[in-house]
Design goal:
single chain
């Protein structure tokens, strides 16, 4: 009987904590997702410009057989592939997302 009472109390505490803690986590997760999306949008804009420049250079110099081959060759430019680190995570939008993520981790201790 004593164990049943402790079990019920533990479940009540866990339910209370879970119900009241979730909105804060959800708000923070939504803000992080917003910042991450802004980072990716900024990265993709910059990558697209660089990719187009590399493709044009490839076509003009005849580095590869034709435009289609150049486009395939540079299709993953800027992304993590073949041991390369992804590019442009140093943009202000990405630094803001990173700082927000780390501020949560450091304040969680």
């Amino acid at each position: 009987m004593k164990n049943a009472g402790l079990l019920i109390m533990a479940l009540m505490v866990l339910t209370f904590v879970g119900v009241h803690a979730d909105p804060l986590g959800t708000d923070r997760d939504a803000k992080q997702a917003e910042l991450d999306a802004a980072c990716e949008e900024a990265r993709q804009k910059k990558i697209a410009l660089e990719r187009a420049k590399h493709i044009e250079e490839c076509v003009e110099t005849g580095m590869l057989a034709d435009r289609e081959t150049c486009e395939r060759f540079y299709a993953d430019y800027g992304e993590s592939a073949a041991g390369r680190a992804p590019l442009y995570y140093d943009l202000p939008e990405c630094e803001k997302a990173h700082e927000y993520r780390n501020s949560y981790r450091s304040s969680d201790t």
